[in-house]
Write a structure and sequence with these properties.
heterodimer; A: about 290 residues; mainly alpha; MetI-like fold; globular; B: alpha+beta; Rossmann fold; OB fold (Dihydrolipoamide Acetyltransferase, E2P); 2 domains; 6-stranded mixed sheet; 5-stranded antiparallel sheet; 10 helices
Chain lengths: ~290, ~350
Amino acid sequence: MKHVYGWLLLTPAAILLVGFTHYPAAMTLFDSFFSTGTVVRPSRFVGLDNYAALADDPIFWQVLGNNFWFALGTIPSAIALAMVMALWVNEKLPARALVRMAYFTPTVLPMIAVANIWLFFYTPQIGLLDQFNALFGVASHNWLGDPDTVLGAVMLMVVWKEAGFFMIFYLAALQSLPPELEEAAKIEGASRWYFFRRVTFPLLMPTTLFVLVNATINSFKLVDHLFILTKGGPDNASSLLLYYIYQVAFSFFDTAYASTLTVVLLALLAGLAVLQFLLIERRVHYR
Amino acid sequence: MKQFGRVKAVDDVSFRAEAGKFVVLLGPSGCGKSTLLRLIAGLEEPTTGRILIDGRDVTKLAPEKRKVSMVFQSYALFPHLSVAENIVFGLKVRRLPAQKRKERLAKVVELVALTEQLERKPSQLSGGQRQRVALARAIVAENSICLMDEPLSNLDAQLRHGMRVEIRALQQRLGMTVVYVTHDQVEAMSMADRIVLIREGRIEQEGSPEELYARPATMFAARFIGTPAMNLVALADGAGGAVIRGSADVVLPGSGAGLTLGVRPEHVRLEEGAAGTGVRATVTSAEYHGADTIVTVQAGEETLFVRAPGQLALAGGAKVRLAWDPEAAHLFDSETGLRAVDVRQQARVAAAQHRKTG
């Protein structure tokens, strides 16, 4: 009787999970082995044809490359910035609560709102950035319209948005460190930098791992801003993998190919997570 | 003096720690003894006043320039570093060559018996072992002064006793000057060369453990040293001399009003039966401790503790008589809490001065 109750309690959550997560995931994998069906030509099994098409798709490779640079550009800088900010607002300083809140504000804003704010920054001629540059006689530049600068401009915004969120985790970790550690190091004559390098940084490693995994997932997951800022353009220069999947599925209605792309994205994320844990686990000290 | 906001944590405290001596700052929690230690270490800066080490004014000096080591109450070990790394942390900061570090480490772990645990992390050690690591980290610096902030308070009673003996032995072997903060009078009595008793940020009494035990300067000091604490009973005027409040038996010649009598439980002799000399009292309870029995008695309106050797078969309500040697009795002024003899002395000095100036 006992396990019946157990199952009953699990059922509501299980229905939601299976219905909206596990079944779609399985179906995605299943669909990736079939062609996209139409009214005249129903869907049929094509084996690995979709994957072969993907390997030959230049846009896929470009988008994957974009995502690689996007991750490389945003993750380390957001983490470093978050750590520096956390160290700073953990000190005794005037209006500390206000400073902390100010750093956290970008996190509270929806990505769509953030993108709109930054759209105003980047707009040629009337945008904040161009107006500021004009003061120094720098010519106007279409930051989001130039394939060379668009990805950088988007990355900058994402770092601004994410750093405050990660800062909160670092701040929590810093506050759980006993202050005697710093005093003990002080008496031994350790400089602040030495103490950070040998004690604080290693003790923050569990947080860093957590933040790193989150940042990696986010760099593949967060594409809301592209809808406002660039729509992936110009010429796919700022498109990311998930945005491309969205286009394929809902603009081109090629569901089979979108499924294939999704499987690749999931495999990529799973692989990255495993790699991170294997590489960093050994260097992390959990208390 | 050290002031936090408007609160004076430490006020008008002045004491000397002789080189090679074990000085204990003793007092109840919140009395400012830890603040005092942190002032010496340089972790806090005094609002006013000076701190001298070896005749050198270090008041404005950074902690590492004061050449002192410190053992923290929480040990403050670096959880991600091994025992060996923890111990040589300071040596690495000071860029001591690896060879030298190794030699010093070997010497120190021998002293504190940690040779087997060098590669372990602090979380894999027992409380006593962590304590040893903290000690080792303090002595490996080879500073002549070591500050200890309640280092034994996280250990269980049995370990505490062992560590007490060990720390004292280590201090004497290395000839260190130790300033040791504790609220435990047993630690103070058993380890100290000199005790500085602190109350509410001020020095209550300073002296050797023997002095504090034999001649408490105030009622506070009398109550703080010794277990169970000294009996402090209010006196009153009786027929033929001072009596314990509510009792008829004279304990002292002269007036008793306004005075408090102090007698240590171990100095009270207990005699059974109501007939005979001594202060008559009634037994309330008897608590058997093994080597001795703590008997609670009621004399007049006051309750006293008596420490009687061995086992005593005394039922509640039994009539007894109490006696003590005259030199075991201490007199205090009930109003000020000061030792009454000193009070009388002060009065004499004041009168003498009055005569001179008048």
